[in-house]
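example protein:
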Amino acid sequence: MIVLRISPAITPSMPGLDRHRRPPGDYRLAKGHQSVSSRSTDTTLVAGLIIASFLFLYFHLFVPPFTPIWTGGDEVIFLHDASRMLDGQVLYRDFAQMTFPATDALYFVAFKIFGLRMWIPNLFLVVLGVTLSYLSYFIASRIAPGATALLVPLLFLTLVYRNRLDATHHWFSALATLGALAALVDGRTYLRVAVAGALCGIAASFTQSLGFLVLLAFGLSLYWQSRRSSSPEALIKKQLLLVACFAVALSTGTLPFIHVIGWRAFIHSTLIFSLRYYPTLPGANNFQGYMAGLGGFLYWRRIPDLLGFVFIHALLPLIYILFLVRYYRVSPQRANEQWDALMLINLVGIFSLLSVASAPTWARLYYVSLPALILFVWFLNFEGPSGKTFSKLLFGYTTILLVALPLVKQLHRPSYLDLPTGRTAFLNREAYDRYRWAASQTRPSDFFFGGLFPDFYFILKLRNPAPVAFITPYEYTRPEEVHAVLAGLEQHQVKTVLWASALDLSTSPQGDHLSPLRLYIREHYHISRTFPEYEVWSRND
């Protein structure tokens, strides 16, 4: 097994090293047997972490005993997709999606077993958060001593994850890549390489860019380590094994869908659309997304959230640059297993960041922040007494948040709705009002067009007459999709359409294809109610 010890000096057997030049906090990994007390302590820490993270997330996502708290977010698109699959529709053929199919398939399986229930995404968020917390501790404990490693999941839960409780494809792929990192952080045996490759394939099945780039990071790491510890033949075998297991896992998750729709439709949806049209949305899907959303954190009640926002933006990509500087400054001391593990974490962090670099919104930075948090905690320990003091302050602060934040959440007085997907608690009054109104005006299986708002379909079990979850006045919404919306509205005589003012305010007129839809709605519908975010248009009798 792997244990940590503080090396008192540079190993004398390493030629050409000055044993008086060891930087503070230069921890080495040593192979040997863990003492009974060490194993007992580690088990206690792990058990405490799992229980604490579960309770923290449970009280953020449920009103006891099991009433889900509405969270919203991008997950509603995948919940809607899976409900369409449950009705017999085919992904990429009958409705559009730009990610690989694993998220839709996962929710489809859950709905097939349990039905369309609001608690399912919330339960997934609890499982995701607990598992990510444990894996981050597992990896951090390989490079930081004792309870110091607990700071990583504490930072993650209180400053990052709780602000992005959205069971979307990003968190599932982040979990798979972190599992792959955990598999390789202790060693590079053939079995570990195979597991890492398969997990990268699973990650790509959720988020194609992250899975492929992290695979590249692992390949570079294997090459990096092999320069002094492996033969060229062993390196080639491991690289081939990594890619082969990746391909098998990815094929398992995608080929059944490709078999139904064909390669051309699959490539157009997941590659061509992503490259050509996805970046056309202003503010979110391109470089303008960096630091966007800061205004939403500038309230005194959101000070902890603001600190997390500033912290993550300051950390990425600075921590990876600082690590490389430190790595080359201590070159005589880096020939040990811990530095191999640190370089692996750094490479995974860099390539994870590259997967969202084209649209670095705060949410996407949060999804790929765990390798940075692990390196940050190692840096604090590396810096000696001052770093350890700051580490203790952060430990105390995040521990307070771990207790206080769910308590504050539960002290809110929620409003409840008995919806087709189950009884749901709302802490947001505007969300409660709009769902209460929509529930009073519709019945499950009614056709309903949400325009810019896809969140009504799943929660109220409504049917979407269009092949897209939402529309935009940009190239993101293609002309053929607009024509399909018009055909669906006419064929099903849809009674209710939601129209937001943002759909009339395109900053790129040449990419706005909604004119026929605007004309059709104004000819066949009238405004029956107004909400802050949209107008309700009802069909003329």
The two ends are 74 Å apart (CA to CA). Residues 414 and 428 are 8 Å apart (CA to CA).
